[in-house]
Prior knowledge:
Chains A, B, C, D: It comes from Defluviicoccus vanus. Chain A is α+β, with helices and mostly antiparallel strands.
Amino acid sequence: xxxxxxxxxxxxxxxxxxxxxxxxxxxxxxxxxxxxxxxxxxxxxxxxxxxxxxxxxxxxxxxxxxxxxxxxxxxxxxxxxxxxxxxxxxxxxxxxxxxxxxxxxxxxxxxxxxxxxxxxxxxxxxxxxxxxxxxxxxxxxxxxxxxxxxxxxxxxxxxxxxxxxxxxxxxxxxxxxxxxxxxxxxxxxxxxxxxxxxxxxxxxxxxxxxxxxxxxxxxxxxxxxxxxxxxxxxxxxxxxxxxxxxxxxxxxxxxxxxxxxxxxxxxxxxxxxxxxxxxx
Amino acid sequence: xxxxxxxxxxxxxxxxxxxxxxxxxxxxxxxxxxxxxxxxxxxxxxxxxxxxxxxxxxxxxxxxxxxxxxxxxxxxxxxxxxxxxxxxxxxxxxxxxxxxxxxxxxxxxxxxxxxxxxxxxxxxxxxxxxxxxxxxxxxxxxxxxxxxxxxxxxxxxxxxxxxxxxxxxxxxxxxxxxxxxxxxxxxxxxxxxxxxxxxxxxxxxxxxxxxxxxxxxxxxxxxxxxxxxxxxxxxxxxxxxxxxxxxxxxxxxxxxxxxxxxxxxxxxxxxxxxxxxxxx
Amino acid sequence: xxxxxxxxxxxxxxxxxxxxxxxxxxxxxxxxxxxxxxxxxxxxxxxxxxxxxxxxxxxxxxxxxxxxxxxxxxxxxxxxxxxxxxxxxxxxxxxxxxxxxxxxxxxxxxxxxxxxxxxxxxxxxxxxxxxxxxxxxxxxxxxxxxxxxxxxxxxxxxxxxxxxxxxxxxxxxxxxxxxxxxxxxxxxxxxxxxxxxxxxxxxxxxxxxxxxxxxxxxxxxxxxxxxxxxxxxxxxxxxxxxxxxxxxxxxxxxxxxxxxxxxxxxxxxxxxxxxxxxxx
Amino acid sequence: xxxxxxxxxxxxxxxxxxxxxxxxxxxxxxxxxxxxxxxxxxxxxxxxxxxxxxxxxxxxxxxxxxxxxxxxxxxxxxxxxxxxxxxxxxxxxxxxxxxxxxxxxxxxxxxxxxxxxxxxxxxxxxxxxxxxxxxxxxxxxxxxxxxxxxxxxxxxxxxxxxxxxxxxxxxxxxxxxxxxxxxxxxxxxxxxxxxxxxxxxxxxxxxxxxxxxxxxxxxxxxxxxxxxxxxxxxxxxxxxxxxxxxxxxxxxxxxxxxxxxxxxxxxxxxxxxxxxxxxx
Lengths: 280, 280, 280, 280
């Protein structure tokens, strides 16, 4: 499926200020960039770095005093595998690829070490597999209120499990923490999200599972707000700390980001009910 | 019902050390002290204070260097009201006696302010009354593991709701925090607990409800370990901070306390299934 | 010294809503109410309760749907003792009046139990006495930024000691927690505060010390924003949970409170540099 | 300088249990492995993975029921650069290599986001450079008690800054969190530590600074317990989560690890007082 997407970010700084952005979409087998363009106003030099272990594309721009705007547009082909959820199992610790160990560790906003007993008591008796991760998402959806402004940049899964409110970032963090607590590698994904209303940068998560086409990352959205087969990945990481769309090194004023994404041709197709595998 | 009970506490200090104890049972209409005796080894002067708003009996003893032992024994008649749980409701905020407001406030180990959404989401839809508080206890019993050593003196309800393990103190704190979050006054109770096995100082909680005999405090034990009509109260307070059985002001060595309680005559009677009202 | 003071509070509710207020000033030997009046618009019945152990005066009013305004005015004579700070010492645990034990316990927003080592390492080597408590206030003043909006109703001393920002409530909580951690009884005080700019309800704390006129409560303001001899007490408590100026039991809209206080005659007198003892 | 070092780890499991170990030393320009050997009792297959971005060497071993012992020995040449601390500065955000951004992010045990104000208030006015990081270490050394058993696997920098006690792991976490809060990339290092008494696995941290030989990682030990030029690195990571020496996937019994390290020839040389740069 083909998507046209983009974002427009506006800032004002008073002193020269370096910014790191992560707004460009990633490139990997299931996600092909057909075209893209990045426009800075005023224009200026860009430093780029693509993180080898994640494919995240980071930009650094040193912004001069005054107004600054970054506009990014892309056309992307998305071809995730749509698979039968019932055929997808978990992976025993003895079989986990060693390079995914980092996605089992607790991280700043996903304190899986403090949530182990909770995770085991609540989900430990369910049969392992895709449906168990889906049950975690259902539990989050049923037990946490989605309320804009109810959390902030310091809010973590440990807070959310008790306070029971948050936004997509918090829902994803809690899903990740609970998966890791059960021994399921999980990672945070920032994305342009088709059908998310209102449009915004979205956060979901992926769990490493073993399905009919082998081991790979399956995407989950505990907010149930976006189409799982319409998530165009920007970055993956251990948690939100790693994939902020904008990190300014200094005081800035900003406007809310504008974000958009349109599906081509099949915008009225029903959302998939299959499991969505994004990457091996 | 008549109980013989007591405790024996042993300490060793190296410098003169003041101790505050709260081990003597309280006296109130439903709890009559038939006889009691307190023995200090070595003997020495005792300062006493009974807190007017709670009836808690505090002792201060200045212990000289060396070994110190306190032994307390009492015979107590317990006559709580046993009432039909279905006839017991909650009390509207407009009708709450103003003097119980303190038992609605969050306290050190019962952060009801941080657990409001959780409490409302989990128990808010249940019909108000004794059975709702009982449902809170059932939830705690079903979702928190009773594990000796899994918590410490710093553990609070906010921790327990996530970590899902604790001892009687933690079970009581969580019950109190959830009640207060729902607008139900609740207080911590330390007690000699009939049939608790192994015997020890026990912690339960009381909620203020409105039953067939008027407004009063009803006792709840979310550990389900003791007979609710066999709890001889030592102290009540906002949480464990207020009713420590021993507070030494200095470094001490100690042995585990010995605690005992025997019911007279009817030690084989079944535990009551009625609601137990201790105090108006 | 005589003060004219008052507050005006405005709310709007959609359903009948009980409110508890604590805005009327306390009466005790060093604080005499010359005159006062309370006006409700619309008028209605008031329930009153004065807490025996604190003297706090609580009002309950059941507010009908619509706009509601409470206006309180009083003229108060304040005669605290002004004493030489150097002559004021701490009180050994063996000598503490037993009825102040509650002000040594950790409370919701003053987790003295978690701050013991910090308190001892930072202030443990200072000579005990008024000046040690003053040093705690200086440390808070020097190390915590006073920033409106940087904390909220859930913020506690444990947070403030690390986050290093807050408002008067947080400064008082931290002072209390550090005193208790050192064995000094301390309590939270809400007050009308002369010379506080801009005027608002203020929060300070009192520590129990032993001076030339015997044991008593000495007031401290770590914000250094108000005149210590111009604090007209509304309530005292273990922490802010106990002396909220307004507790509505339901959803309300409100305007920021208006608060005022004027000193009569000597409004240009210098602030006292003596220790201020309010109550024995 | 040449070191002979090793460790011996003993476990007992009741069911087949996968273990991941990170006890083998890393290989990089300043650290050459002359010889090493790994011995398993009973012997069995080993899976290996070296993490590209860190050089950490992970082993996975599937342990059969019964006793299991791993013994590792190595001879290592260590040639860190010893440089003049005064010539070493910090790196402006605009100049930071983009691949070290991950070491600026908050992590599970290093919540730099929650410690920003504290870090800036305490260390923000110091001149940037090696000596500022050294001042952080001095502050930790002066304000945190090194007490075995005073912290556990869940303890984080946010806890330590308030509780003021911990072990090498906690000292390192706090140093890392404070550096990151000031914009200095910092990473956790597990090591065999020459002259550490008693011998054990040690934890220190490295900060990215700019010295006479260019940008690189400088090692800091806020415990002041080991020789900074005698730290043989096992692993680096964002915090302890990433470089646990042993991660069993299941219940195990274990003995305390035996760890040893000897310097060859110059065991009586004084500890270096220069800055120690380990890696570019």
